Queue: 3 jobs
Job 1
Amino acid sequence: MKKTIKQCSFIMILVLIFSSGIGYSITRAIPVGYLPGASENSWIQKVVAKDASLKAITHPTIALNLFSDEREITDSTGAIYNRSGKKLETLVTDKNPAEILEKTLIEQFQKAGFTVIRTSGWDLSAEKIPGYLEADMIVGGRVKTFWVESKAGFITSTIQSKVVYDLVFADIHQKKIMDEKELVGSDTRKSLAHISDYFWMDIQTSISQSLTRAVNDSF
């Protein structure tokens, strides 16, 4: 009987530890993507229109260079905190943030009527613009922030997310930088308690909204 009581007590202690987040952390993968119905491709056209050598080209070809990841934290993309500030869960994306951003930009270029090819090795400088590519332009960038977090309140939780990246456009024929800018997208919203299914939908929507706004950020 005493042995059974001890076993039950031990199990109850484990349950309390897990539920309070002490010494236990879950890693959860969340899908992230560009939100439909939010397409704003005019900035792509404006970049091309700035270059006289590209105006006569009906369907320009863009070479998308492999993005570098310069985030301070590269092994996760978010966190869930309880009311006391203790981290309960670590969030990761279903794909690498650089891959998500590259895929989203390619889709936007294609929707704007451009042909896209993939490349790598460009250091984003005018001196190293690769002239051997069969393309009219090259675009590359650096991922600087890709993060979403939630902090629990009394009834609701506050979700905040942010996506920041550098984007560089260059004319391959003239070997010159056409535009370079830091692009930013952010989102803040309230959600129900962490146990709600709606909460996880809000987490996904928030970081996807930040991604969408960063991609649509105008030059």
Job 2
Amino acid sequence: MEFEEMKKIWDAQSNQAMYAIDEAALRNRVIAKKAKARKLAGLTEKIFIGANIFAGSIIVVASVIKDKWSVSGLIMTAFMYFIAGYIVVRRNKRLKSQDKFERTMLGDLDNAIATADYQVNFSRSSRYYLGVVVGLSLTSLLEANSPWWVVVLAALFFILTYIGAKWEYRTFYASQKKELRSMRDKLVSMDNDEPHAGFDQAI
């Protein structure tokens, strides 16, 4: 067999091996991204559900012990229980929607992107939720004739919480969504590139 012919066979086998290795590595990366997105969404949901139920129950217990009920306190309790139930419904819908994606690399990536979209929307909605809580909390403090410095401290706390929520949104949720979409674009563009080169760039 001629040397050039042997070299062509060898190069073809090497490229196939490299393609298989890179494809497996990328597949594992996609699965890891999907698992991370699901874990983050699930953790956020559980924290919000637990925090709302706990906070609402604290208001009820405190009102019973003091035998003093305020309109703002009742509204806040009902609102928090409602939000906890609403998040449970949204969580169930999210979990059910995960079954509609194909069991392929692109399908797993689309699954991760859908979860990231959900997380971004959840984070945005939580800021509106925070606004309602701030209004009800400050109203409750005023109804209770709390000292002015208590009201100021509460207002400062909520401002810092809002700033922290925006930072969390940009740092974790928005950046994760952008990274996943960029990864998907690279994966789709591989059809027009050399197999091993495309996977190297994506990884």
Job 3
Amino acid sequence: MSDTNTGHANTGAPFRRPLAWQDPAFDDPEKLDAELRRVFDICHGCRRCFNLCDSFPRLFDLIDATPSEVIEEVASSDFKSVVDACTLCDMCFMTKCPYVPPHPFDLDFPHLMLRYRAMEFRAGKTGFADRALTETDRNGRLGGAVAPLANWATATGNRLSRPVMEKVADIHRDAALPKFHGKTFVARAREPATVNAKAPGFGRKAVLYATCFVNYHNPGIGEAARKVLAHNGVETEVVHPVCCGMPKLEQGDIQTVVERARKISAELLGWRDKGYDVVALIPSCALMIKSEWPLMLPDDAEIKRLAECTFDLSQYVVDIAKKNGIADGLSPLQGGVSAHLACHARAQNMGPKAIEMLKLIPKTEIATIERCSGHGGSWGVKTENFDLALKVGKPVARQAVKNAKAYLASECPLAAEHIRQGTERLDAPAARSWHPIELLAKAYGLI
């Protein structure tokens, strides 16, 4: 792995380089420090990302506070604060940075932050609470087994258990946490759905990758997806081999992510070979399959094949509408929708598919919010990050309040709930948050 600039003139489309996580130089402290200084110096001179996450203000303040305002005078130990503020939303790479490959500067800020975390993880510096939060399948099974008790204990108003969680697990007492369900989405999906044989899309088949969030925490999203697809003539199967590894990736545990990628791809491609389209229900998981896995395993033909045939859920519904036609029966949603574009949906570089999907609903005003919610997965619930996460997401909450729509939606359920909490901080009326597929199901009268 080289830390030198080897790119050519910036004459082609932006692209991401494979993640050289198996190269000994990847987590070599000296080589990593040199690359951090190179990149941070470029970022300090540019500052286009100042209004994204808190990583950039922290970086700029570090350098500006030195006597000569140069990166050479910043202590390496101070870099950790910059890394810790990164949510891996990818928005700097996707929407702001003019120096991504093929530019000779060859910047990929999110993957540099990941490289630092991978170094910490391999060195055993990742804390117990952080590692425990990434065990989403285990946590989902345990919480689901005692769902009423687990939901009581994790409720934000619980003054008995939440202060204890804050001390023991580093989870802020005011952060809204996902609910648990005793019956997973996979279990619920064993009941067959009646497929509409009169729909234009009749004959299509799709395997739904349940994702750990939908499977254990919000099966309603999956049920709405199945109902909408069945109404549009699509036969569905539901599988959840294991979590896609996004929480593990956030902590730098790349080896585990790779192991999971191979396991999930083997099962999903088995369905693909039987004629099923592959659909991921949550944008973060779709992004892992489409982008992150192929960058970790660039020579794996099966990983590449899965990436090329996987749909994000909203993308799939739009594909049906364009290629086959959407089924009849949609009614307007009175009061309109304030729709947030999730960062990991935007990072898939497929266009605003959630907005396209919602615009299929007749006579319904859709107000788009295109900015990071600030949540960042498990990052946003941690004690040291929660207030900062709300601060980063405050412009989104303000826009949602200003839009004054009847419905608040985001493809990322964690982002949607975080925005809802942000609107409460602005003394706006409390309202539940929705996934766009739930609103489509509601417009069909299916829920």
